[in-house]
């Protein structure tokens, strides 16, 4: 893969926005079939330009308008916000200063009305349980945490909440995002969004809290099913990859999560064993026996589960999900530090997803150049060929499979929409 | 020829029409009434409902809600005031109509401030909870449907499929006995308080809620709707209040519960230390009177007593400096070492004034708290004498306070009926000149925050004000609620 140099961004972005960004599909998504008037036109976009210039409350008339502006401004970062009650006009400051002029909106009437339910899972939030990396770094060993997170959260969103249209996207550096786009979900209030995050949260406490997961005797089906998912990955990820019981330093962290009365026994036996796997087996046995003198301790697998959950269960940022007006990085946006494109993740192949194989903007631009020079096409009608290029160019690069995943997602949205319209027209006896 | 067979005095609905307008013994008050009533009936309905809600409040304080004693007393009260509560064989139309109209009248009076609204919503919720609890299980479904709540009870087969999951999710279910329980399937967003804490089973966007938990959801819905409605009412209230016939009634209704906030330090520095002894006999409620006496006699009080009395003194206006002086002086008389006082006791006094620790400016204990928590044991003098004293001892105490024998027996009857706060109010009436209860109330309220929180003027006061209105205009009046509902005069 072509190495990425941030200094080349302005040039690379120009090419990206002219030839590679999938505008048609992008518009198809955010327009949601054009069923609601002005849904796309009232959507907030924010652009971060070169030198950290940040513009909010951008809105566009249609796909072509969007294309032109993006090509003109060449944004380093694109965020998607809410659908508001009115069009944004480029900067909050401008209309705040002119509250009574024609075509401007009275303060307070400009409200965020709808938005997809979004989740942001960041690898940094797992620093307390990762041994291989910390902060913005990731590697193939700890990426399994994201795999587990996607499986656990996606299962709950689909099976418990009944959400059908979930788009998972690689953030470009150290995490994943989820966009839930069902029509009813876009209308959910902030309180319900918070409630959903609470339902999905198990790991509680900051740096000062040692034991972050406490299970009650009654284990809710959500917790039980999440544990089944973690069990599939635990040995490979935690016992082999992370080697969480490798030595005294690492197993002391686990001992901090079990009652003190068990420490001596465990320490002694850990010395006798030779691998994390063996030590874990021992710990499981010891933990499920009824502790003799501890009041209110449950007998059974709870302790073992609590440890597994603390090491593997997803951490969610509630602030990202609860605010209707919260801005989140757009899919197919470029990450300015790594150069990677924020690409959709294929849920059917989530175990095989490799963040290091995700194309960078330099690599796909390079691919495009290579193809272009080799084909040596003649351009009779510049505009026509440009359009032809634009609609097919990404297909010739490594971006193609990811756009295909996106298209599948859009197909499902379309199908649902048609189904809904049919239902409605049947009810109204409108043929 | 058609004979309706209905006397002209009664409302003009017959048989099935009457049943149809009020199909259930309880309701969510979604639609305002639309008939005409006389001013007299307007007043009577309002007063009766106010009496009912006050009983709800008192019973809620004196008994644990939901217990048999509470339920039977509340039912008796509702029946006595002729409101609807239970499906019965008799014609339910009148009590239900009364319930409906009186609720909407009180909305007018109680929408005006945050405190009034909170009080009104609380009592209405308790009333609804009671009525719902005695609704036969097979009637629940139709009641929910008629109230436009989309709660469906699921079939046996559906229940069986999910039995394990439902039991594992709901903490309110006693044991694995799901066959006896109704389970309702509702959209997950309607069960926010349940699913956010994972207290209910979710499947495909629906929450499977056992009956016990449905009540909480219904009450939340009710509270939310009523809260919104009160806000709407308040906005349109000026139009209603401009009607001279209604204005005095509505004003007085809302002042009969005074929702003042006694945590505000409006009184600081208004009491001097040498006033306390005489105030304790003239103006303190018996609980504080007995604490003061014990402090003077023993030169000491235990922790419970120090808390209850100390905060009370703060509430009536003692400053921190005065309090430190007061307690230290007394404790030293008990041969306590001044240094020991400074070390052990002054910190706690400063803490209760919000000058230490997390700096919470604590408010005096409410009657509820004193009656229901931390009962006194041997050597303690805190608590509520009406609640915690042996009746014989209480009688002796009241005699020593020079209460008349008639008054004492009334008080003891109230205590027997566990109406402790009402007993305290009776004590107040007996020890004050009750010719002008309003004046006394006001004096009392400034001197005694604890008592003031539940002080109620007696009903006759309300009635006297209305005699004037009624004499002035005995005519049919348009119901005011249509005005406030639409914001316009029709």
The counted number of beta strands of chain A is 8
**Number of contiguous helices of chain A:** 16
Q: Which sequence of SSEs, written as H and E, runs from N to C of chain A?
A: HHEEHEHEEHEEHHHHHHHHEHHH
* Strand fraction of chain A: 5-15%
Which segments of chain A are poorly predicted (pLDDT under 50) over 5 or more consecutive residues? 92-103
Radius of gyration of chain B: 27 Å
> Average pLDDT across residues of chain A?
88
Helix content of chain B: 55-70%
**Range of helix content of chain A:** 40-55%
Task: Give the strand content of chain B.
Answer: under 5%
Rg of chain A (CA only): 25 Å
Oligomer: heterodimer
Please tell me what the overall shape of chain B is.
Answer: globular
**Chain pair sharing the greatest interface:** A-B, 20 and 17 residues
Characterize the overall form of chain A.
globular
How many helical stretches of chain B?
26
| Lateral strand order in the biggest sheet of chain B | 2-3-5-4
Structural class of chain B: mainly alpha
Give the terminus-to-terminus CA distance of chain B. 35 Å
Polypeptide structure, described:
- The complex is a heterodimer of chains A (431) and B (490).
- Chain A has 431 residues and is α+β, with helices and mostly antiparallel strands.
- In chain A, 45% of the residues lie in helices and 10% in strands.
- Chain A is built from 16 helices and eight strands.
- In chain A, helix 1 packs across helix 14, helix 5 packs antiparallel against helix 8 and helix 8 packs across helix 12.
- The longest helix of chain A is centred in the C-terminal third of the chain and has 29 residues.
- The relative contact order of chain A is 0.15.
- The two termini of chain B are 35 Å apart.
- Chain B is globular, with a radius of gyration of 27 Å.
- Helix content of chain B is 59%, strand content 4%.
- In chain B, strands 2-3-5-4 form a four-stranded antiparallel beta sheet.
- In chain B, 30% of the residues are buried.
- Chain B is built from 26 helices and six strands.
- With 490 residues, chain B is mainly alpha-helical.
């Amino acid at each position: 893969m072509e190495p990425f140099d941030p200094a080349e961004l302005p040039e690379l972005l120009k090419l990206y926005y002219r030839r590679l960004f999938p505008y048609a599909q992008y518009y198809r998504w955010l327009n949601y079939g054009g069923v609601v008037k002005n849904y796309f036109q009232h959507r907030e976009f924010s652009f971060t330009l070169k030198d950290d210039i940040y513009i909010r409350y951008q809105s566009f008339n249609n796909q072509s308008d969007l294309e032109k502006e993006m090509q003109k401004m060449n944004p380093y970062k694109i965020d998607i916000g809410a659908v508001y009650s009115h069009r944004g006009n480029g900067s909050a400051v401008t209309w705040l200063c002119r509250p009574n002029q024609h075509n401007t909106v009275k303060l307070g009437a400009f409200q965020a009305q709808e938005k997809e339910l979004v989740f942001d899972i960041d690898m940094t939030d797992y620093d307390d349980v990762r041994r291989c990396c910390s902060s913005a770094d990731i590697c193939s060993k700890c990426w399994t945490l994201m795999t587990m997170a996607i499986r656990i959260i996606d299962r709950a969103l689909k099976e418990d909440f009944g959400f059908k249209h979930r788009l998972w996207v690689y953030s470009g550096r150290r995490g994943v995002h989820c966009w839930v786009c069902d029509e009813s979900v876009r209308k959910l209030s902030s309180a319900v969004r918070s409630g959903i995050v609470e339902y999905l949260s198990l790991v509680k406490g900051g740096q000062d809290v040692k034991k972050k997961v406490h299970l009650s005797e009654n284990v809710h089906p959500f917790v039980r099913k999440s544990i089944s998912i973690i069990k599939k990955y635990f040995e490979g990820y935690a016992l082999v990859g992370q080697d969480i019981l490798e030595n005294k330093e690492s197993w002391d962290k686990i001992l901090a999560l079990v009652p003190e009365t068990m420490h001596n026994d465990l320490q002694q036996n850990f010395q006798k064993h030779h691998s994390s796997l063996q030590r874990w087996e021992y710990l499981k046995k010891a933990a499920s026996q009824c502790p003799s003198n501890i009041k209110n301790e449950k007998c059974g697998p709870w302790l073992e589960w609590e440890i597994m959950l603390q090491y593997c269960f997803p951490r969610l940022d509630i602030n990202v999900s609860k605010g209707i007006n919260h801005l989140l990085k757009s899919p197919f946006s470029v990450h300015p530090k790594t150069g990677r494109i924020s690409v959709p993740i294929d849920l059917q192949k989530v175990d095989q997803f490799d963040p290091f194989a995700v194309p960078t903007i330099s690599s796909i631009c390079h691919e495009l150049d290579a193809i272009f020079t080799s084909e040596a096409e003649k351009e009779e009608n510049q505009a026509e060929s440009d359009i032809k290029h634009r609609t097919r160019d990404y297909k010739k690069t490594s971006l193609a499979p990811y756009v295909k995943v996106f298209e599948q997602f859009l197909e499902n949205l379309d199908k649902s929409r048609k189904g809904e319209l049919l239902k409605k027209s049947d009810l109204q006896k409108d043929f | 020829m058609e004979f309706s067979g209905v006397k002209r005095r009664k409302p003009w609905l017959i048989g099935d029409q009457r049943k149809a307008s009020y199909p259930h013994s309880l309701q969510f008050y979604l639609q305002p009434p639309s008939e005409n009533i006389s001013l007299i009936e307007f007043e009577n309905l309002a007063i009766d409902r106010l009496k009912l809600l006050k009983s709800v409040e008192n019973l809620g304080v004196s008994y644990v809600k939901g217990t048999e004693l509470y339920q039977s007393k509340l039912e008796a009260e509702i029946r006595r005031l002729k409101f609807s509560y239970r499906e019965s064989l008799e014609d339910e139309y009148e009590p239900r109509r009364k319930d409906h109209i009186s609720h909407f009248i009180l909305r007018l009076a109680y929408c005006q401030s945050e405190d009034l609204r909170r009080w009104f919503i609380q009592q209405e919720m308790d009333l609804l909870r009671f009525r719902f609890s005695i609704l036969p299980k097979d009637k629940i479904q139709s009641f929910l449907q008629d109230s436009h709540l989309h709660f469906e009870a699921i079939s046996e087969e559906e229940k069986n499929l999910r039995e394990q999951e439902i039991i594992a999710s709901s903490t309110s279910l006693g044991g694995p006995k799901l066959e006896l329980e109704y389970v309702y399937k509702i959209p997950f967003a309607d069960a926010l308080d349940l699913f956010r804490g994972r207290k209910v089973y979710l499947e495909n966007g629906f929450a499977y809620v056992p009956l016990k938990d449905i009540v909480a959801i219904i009450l939340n819905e009710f509270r939310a709707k009523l809260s919104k409605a009160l806000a709407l009412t308040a906005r349109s209230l000026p139009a209603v209040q401009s009607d001279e016939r209604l204005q005095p009634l509505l004003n007085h209704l809302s002042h009969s519960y005074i929702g003042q906030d006694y945590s505000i330090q409006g009184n600081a520095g208004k009491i001097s230390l040498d006033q306390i002894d005489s105030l304790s006999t003239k103006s303190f409620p018996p609980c504080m009177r007995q604490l003061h006496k014990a402090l003077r006699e023993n030169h000491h009080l235990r922790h419970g007593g120090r808390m209850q009395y100390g905060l009370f003194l703060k509430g009536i206006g003692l400053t921190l400096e005065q309090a430190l002086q007061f307690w230290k002086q007394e404790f030293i008389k008990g041969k306590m070492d001044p240094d020991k006082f400074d070390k052990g006791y002054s910190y706690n006094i400063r803490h209760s004034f919000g000058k230490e620790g997390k700096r919470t400016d604590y408010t005096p204990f409410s009657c509820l708290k004193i009656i229901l928590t931390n009962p006194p044991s041997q050597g303690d003098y805190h608590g509520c004498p009406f609640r915690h004293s042996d009746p014989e001892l209480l009688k002796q105490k009241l005699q020593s306070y020079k209460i008349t024998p008639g008054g004492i027996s009334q008080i003891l009857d109230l205590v027997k009926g566990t109406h402790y706060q009402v007993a305290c109010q009776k004590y107040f009436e007996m020890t004050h000149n009750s010719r002008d209860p309003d004046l006394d109330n006001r004096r009392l309220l400034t001197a005694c925050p604890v008592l003031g929180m539940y002080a109620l003027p007696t009903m006759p006061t309300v009635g006297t004000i209305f005699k004037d209105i009624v004499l002035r205009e005995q005519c049919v009046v348009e119901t005011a609620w249509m005005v406030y509902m639409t914001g316009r005069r029709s």
